[in-house]
Amino acid sequence: MESWTIGEGTLSENSARIGYHLLCLSTEELPEACDCAKTVKLSYGYYSTAEARTNTGGQGCIFPQDASVETQDWAVAFVTRENVNDLSDVRILGAGSAIARSTCKGGVPLNIITDILKIGAGVTETIISVKTGQIDGLADQIRRIADDLDSMLLRYNDVKECASALISKPLCQGTANITLRPNDPVSCFVMSGSSMGISGRRCWHSTARINSSFHLTGVLTGGSPSPSAPHCCTDYMANWIWGSLDGSQQNRMSAVSSHLALNNPGGWGTINGAPNTGGVAQVYTEIGYAIGVPLPPAQRCQKEIPLLLNPQ
Prior knowledge:
By secondary structure, the chain is mainly β. The chain has one domain. It is built from three helices and 13 strands. It has helices at 116-128, 138-152, 249-262, and strands spanning 2-4, 12-20, 38-56, 66-81, 91-104, 154-161, 164-180, 186-201, 204-220, 237-244, 268-271, 274-275, 287-292. Strands 7-3-9-10-13-11-12 form a seven-stranded antiparallel sheet, covered by helices on one side. A six-stranded mixed sheet has the order 1-2-8-4-5-6. A hairpin with a 7-residue loop joins strand 1 and strand 2.
């Protein structure tokens, strides 16, 4: 899990990442026996509460007074292939923005809202951080990502006068199937950013609050995609990352556990490397992984390895 700040403003960006790499090596770059595809079943979600509250007045306040507050929280879920040397492969899964504003007796415009182009720039920088090659035409790439985001961004706005503006919504959530091919690593992200501003004059009280939580989890389906591709046979595997600043830890753990239960290979044999008695996935760590129980004998991974015997 990574966190950093871009620019000199109040923009704060954070990202969570899980990745998959089906490695197949030989004297060839991609052996013919490894030319296959597997499926990663992904679940993601980002949940936000953004509040802006103002009031003015008080004992002895006789001169003009005002107050204003703005808060914004945004989130994007996306997938990228690390070996593609441009952004044409990027798949935006979901995106949303929550903006809460409150003013009292006028107030001062704060202008702290992050526009779609800046969100696109932040997403692009995160994507470039996992790409293995040089990305050319960066300005055009940012614009394309921003256009994709703009077409699907869920926009939530609440404006109040001398009261509390409150938004409590999932900014992005859903499931997706990701195709995984040998020697073609894939990274999956949930990324978010927030900003807030407060101002007032004389007798005033302004409050800005943002609390959020998220989860990101995937299940790599086990077995072999076809009888002719034994090199691509794997056990079932799952990994996850979640976090909460809004007291919903149990909800996030349940979201991950439910996804693992829905894509159950017959049970999960280990959780974070420890034996899992009963096979039921009970997620209890913010970052972790699980390995499925052995598949039925007919589906288990087997590969004949020829032995070259030296008569000497």
